[in-house]
Amino acid sequence: MKQYKVKQDFSDAVTGAMVRAGDTITATDARAEELRAGGVINVTPVAVGPEPEAATEPASTTKKK
Fold this sequence. Notes:
The chain is α+β, with helices and mostly antiparallel strands. The chain has one helix at residues 29-37; strands spanning 2-5, 10-11, 18-19, 24-27. The protein has a domain at 2-37. The chain is built from 1 helix and 4 strands; from the N terminus they run E-E-E-E-H. The strands form 2 sheets. A two-stranded antiparallel ribbon has the order 1-4. A two-stranded antiparallel ribbon has the order 2-3. Strand 2 (10-11) and strand 3 form a beta hairpin.
């Protein structure tokens, strides 16, 4: 599935959730085509980068007294 930027608020008929302009949604090609036809998402998918790597350093380096 691909991610798309929402350009107009809409109520998702599948999930019932309110989706706001500026949000990024994930959709199948078929669902994206329906949303494109309704004019609520951008035509081209959003470029998605690689997953961020997990931190290798400990979360805290301060010692308790």
